[in-house]
Design brief:
Blueprint (H helix, E strand, L loop, with lengths): L9 H28 L5 E5 L2 E8 L13 H24 L3 H24 L2 E9 L2 E2 L5 H23 L2
Antiparallel strand pairs: 1-2, 2-3, 3-4
Helix pairs in contact: 1-3, 2-3, 3-4
Length: about 170
């Protein structure tokens, strides 16, 4: 865990919650655009290595458990809700730690964005499609990007903390 356990006031927590809400709003707005303008499987080539597509993911990252019988919707929704509650608790405890809190708030926004999809549709709407010679990365969305950014920032925060401890 990131160093120091300074209790955050509501005021110090607010910027992180606003960042998470911005992520949710951008994520949901982009998904609404995709749902309005694309049918499942439609694709638009943007450049040689990038398409906008409409894909539905009933599983988790990289379509993990996507072929399950439907119970995974509730499992991943529950995990997302649990993660959101835990992250808000951690943000309250560490709101003064900027990189750590930015990371958590990014993950929070992404998790909530994908939970909304699971509750509304039973799947997550993915639309960013990168590919190239010999590879095709699974389609993803803004929420997934925020979660990935948050995870990278958590690693960087931990590396900085360990380095300061030397």
């Amino acid at each position: 865990m990131a160093g120091g356990n300074k209790k955050g006031s509501a005021a110090s927590l607010l910027p992180w919650l606003i960042w998470a809400v911005v992520i949710v709003l951008v994520d949901q707005f982009t998904k609404v655009l995709i749902l309005q303008h694309y049918q499942l499987g439609d694709s638009t080539r943007i450049v040689g290595f990038f398409n906008i597509v409409r894909a539905h993911n009933t599983g988790a990252a990289f379509s993990f458990l996507a072929q399950a019988a439907g119970w995974q919707r509730w499992l991943f929704t529950g995990i997302g809700v649990f993660a959101a509650v835990l992250i808000v608790y951690l943000l309250r405890s560490h709101a003064g730690q900027k990189l750590f809190s930015f990371a958590l708030a990014s993950i929070l926004g992404g998790a909530v964005g994908n939970v909304i999809d699971r509750m509304l549709h039973g799947y997550v709407v993915d639309f960013l499609d990168f590919h190239g010679a010999g590879y095709h990365f699974p389609a993803f969305n803004i929420a997934d990007s925020a979660i990935t950014l948050g995870a990278i920032c958590l690693v960087l925060d931990e590396l900085r903390r360990v380095r300061r401890g030397r």
